[in-house]
Amino acid sequence: MQKASLEIAEGPGARDSAAPDSRTLHVALFACVAYYLGTKVGFALTFQPHPISTLWPPNAILLAALLLTPTRSWWVPILAVLPAHVAGELQSGVPATMVLGWFASNCSEALIGAGTVRYLVKGEALRFDSFRHVGAFVAGAAFLGPFLSSFIDAGVVRWVGFGGTGYWDMWRTRFFSNMLAELTIVPVIVCWAHGGLESLRNRSGALHVEAGLVALGLIGSAAFAFGTHDAALNASPALLYAPLPFLIWAAVRLGPRGTSLALVVVVFLAVWGAIHGQGPFVRGSPADSALAVQLFLAVLAVPVLMLAAVLREREQAILEHARMEREAHEQRARLTHLARVAILGELTAALSHELNQPLAAILANAETSQRLLDEPTVDLGELRGALRDIVADDQRAAEVIGRLRSLLKRGETRSQPIDLNVLVLEAIGLARGDLARRGIVTGMQLADGLGPVRGDPVQLQQVILNVVLNACDEMAANAPGSRRLDIATEQDASGKIRLSIADSGPGIDPDRLESLFEPFVTTKPDGLGLGLSISRAIVTAHGGHIRAENRPEGGATLILELPAPVRLAGSPGGA
User: Fold this and answer.
1) What is the pLDDT of residues 370-408, one digit of tens each?
2) Tally of domains in the chain
3) Which of 43, 278, 551, 567 has its CA 20 to 30 A from that of 519?
4) 485-497: buried (b, 16+ CB within 10 Å) or exposed (e) per residue?
5) Are 532 and 517 in contact (CB under 8 A)?
6) What is the three-class DSSP state of 565?
7) Which residues constitute the domain of residue 109?
8) End-to-end distance of the chain based on CA atoms, in angstroms?
9) Is residue 5, in this structure, part of any structural domain at all?
10) What would you measure as the largest C-alpha separation in the chain, in angstroms?
11) What is the pTM of this model?
12) What's residue 10's pLDDT?
């Protein structure tokens, strides 16, 4: 049985999983062509008589191909660049032994760099919009790979006898050359391989114009800084930083893709100028000139890449925070709606009674009208009275249904001026049947002249209903005749509107007063503890405050405070 399971696991699909997919083949083809062209560019950027280029792109191209390929398929791009390596270097007069030795050192650099990066990013795809990923790239690919493989490269050159410089001079030149190439070329390939062309189509025309301005400014400033023969101008340190504003512009506005292209432009123009005796990097010897331009560009590239990553990471964090806020708002809206439905569920019997009364009256008046019409002589006055009663009862039922619909309807929050007294009367109207069924006497002291407050009437009515029903539950153990609910509105000296709802129940345990509005805190055996928590969230969203306190004569009072009334257009002092 175990043998059969093993055969299934290693069937044709499992054996084919090691075969390269189409993306890997495309990457390998790109690496082959780019490697060959990079070899030509590398030899063109060599200080003679040094055998090592100031900027050697092939190794960076191979590294980028490995980073874009699954680890199990790394052998594909390595084999793909072999013919390009042999053809490019044999055409440049490199001895066959040196060709094979350099291929070994180039592959070792790419494998060390790609393996280290893959380990540091925990197997994720390398992204240059992440500070952690850029740090892993700089440490593994730009430093460790060139550092270790340069020992092999310089040793092979000395062993073959190709070139006339010492071992450590060749090691130094090769290390900085490949470090600069990794920092310059790998970000461009990796960034644009991950949806680069598609991102261009999704960008606005204004951003394309801005990118064009950055490119023109960058090319102009870099050509001026690194392409002049004026010795006095080249001696000025400020000349080195002419392209820096445009690099920062690219990092801030164009992201990692635009920044990587901007770095390629600056590096190529700086190296080209130094090789041809132009710009501020021309020193007494070719080795000194190469080292100067390599150090400057490497030190410039690292912070620019990290700046672009940090800015893009911050932008993505802001977008993610906004998305989470929208989701949280949607979840709060759903929970609030469910709480309203739950409140109406508690009022089912009372609301049924509220609707049955006008419906029964409508039926009775309709039957009376029919009898009147059947009489030989119709009493028009009595008939008109019955019809008027039908209209009045119909309007009463419509009001009840309208209030139910507004509470059951789920939609966007509406902010509008509200008369709090009217809102209280409507809420009590919905709960009137339930209050009567429980034998609760309701007293109201609604202050005259209250200004309108701004808020969502449905949500604030939900708060009032929730507090009223909680107060009714608290008085359930009271003897009949001792259940009283007092509701009052007032405006304090600071202009705030205060609504207080007091019951004659046993009061609230002092130890629970502070936690009463926390989620899942309840005094009911079958309660969820969400009603008052949602109520507090609604009141807070309206800029108000809700609190509870015990009454000296017994019972508890919940106090809701809302901000000062808004002034309506056309009112005294209004706009």
Assistant:
1) 777 777 776 777 778 778 877 876 776 676 666 556 555
2) 3
3) 551
4) bbbbbebeeeebb
5) yes
6) coil
7) 21-325
8) 86
9) no
10) 133
11) 0.62
12) 37
